[in-house]
Amino acid sequence: MHTFTAVDHRDHLREFGSDDFELARDADIHFADAEIAYEAGLASPVTITDRERCTAVLNQIVDAYWLRCQNRLEAIDRRSIVLQCLRNNEAILAEQDNWRRTRRAVAALHRDQSDILRASQKAREEMDRTQVSHRVMIEMAICTCPDGGGREATQEDIDYLGAQILQMTATAQESDAMRAEAIPAWLRTSLAGDFRLASDFSDLMRPYLLSHFETTHRRDITDYERHFTVRKRGTKTEEEAFGEDFVRAFRGECGISPIRLAEVATVLAEDAFKRKTNVVIRTRESLRELLLSERFSENEFESLMQHFVLPRRSDWTKVAFPFRSKDWWPWRYRRHLSLMARPLVALSETEIAYAPGFCEDSFRHVVMEAHSGAFDTEYFTSRVMKEYIGTANGRRGLDFNKAVAERFTKSGWRVWVEVQMTQLRCPRREASGDIDVIAVKDGIIYLCECKDLSFARTITEVVEQLGRFRGRHGDALWKHMRRAEWVRRNGTELGRIVGQKPVEIRSVLVTSKIVPMQFAHEFPVQVVPMDSLEAYLGLNHD
What we know:
alpha+beta; four-stranded mixed sheet; about 50% helix
């Protein structure tokens, strides 16, 4: 079991990711704050083992942290805190770039590479937490802070709010994990303000996140030269780069094409350079005049305002159509009402604040996530984009199957792609669909379920991904397990397809990247990321 210690308003942290937020082993999880139990409406010590009641208590704690944030924000001038958070966010992004550029130099100066990896990951986690807390603070502030009449935001305000935001999101994620049965239904409260859980899920999260970070860390070292290479200017049209279907879908959804959105970022950056600032405040009308002077149309400007401005709302916790509740939940990613999706911040009815560098990052993020199909179809409102996402995900799945087959072929295996169970004479009532990849060598046969999955960033996303691949009735792994079980019982039918009698039949889930399932204590099939497939085959096939 583990410790998670809260930070209250007496601690003036300059980095929210300090040791106060580190998980330490060999203890219960603590939300140590002498007042939060009272604020959450928990008047007496209690031990709870009912899952529904546990999640209800955790949700009460989330509400209590939000109430603290709300009370503090209502006294602070909106403009002052938004601008301070935008500037801090820019500083964090610059620091992250510096770490990426210097990874090879740091690695060359130290013998203990594992120590470098741990130190680099810790620094990245600290920066990520600080960046997330600042972004959420902006989202809260524009809905809660007064527009004039409040006091200037202080560093103590930023520290206090950042601590509460991190505690709130951590508690919400634990609630999601509890609801999904990823952690035991056990919670104990005390009058001292301790909230203890039997597990905080870090036994899976830590190795999973470390493995993912190690991949990006080594990539930064390998790609060091790119920082000193002048990129050639592309000559492709956006239709050639993205495909006509995507450009049409993106324009139908957002009212502006991908290349024009990139050009908006360039105009904003050049304007900020002339002003000698990295954070800009403009009236809506002056921003309109700037873009129209650069030959953007009225429709393009209005589309930018509609889809990329973070709007003010009377209550941060309430939304109206077309938004959904999950669009404001800060413990979620890929949500409409996040600064990452809407980098232009509505300070008032007439003023907009933004950091041009972050706008470029945001626009790129929205375009590339949509192009790759990483967003769920429900994220979008237009029929044309929903259809594109469905088609893109289907095409991506087929392409990934072929890529996995090529890896097997490269290692000397004979492969079959997308073999229908009907070809194996399997009754539909026993198993249906197809086996993505069958690979054969020396009588060893792999039945591969191939999944091109998005990176799960938070406990909530990890829990959701694990929940989709439990091998339970109707989930994303269940049909593959039924197919593999039938094939093992009917090896002669498989032998007829592959031309040899099976010596051993193995079932494997091949994924596009490192996934949480690799670190689950009990998982029904072997999980192998594609980048590790050749090494895995070398170790497991003599």
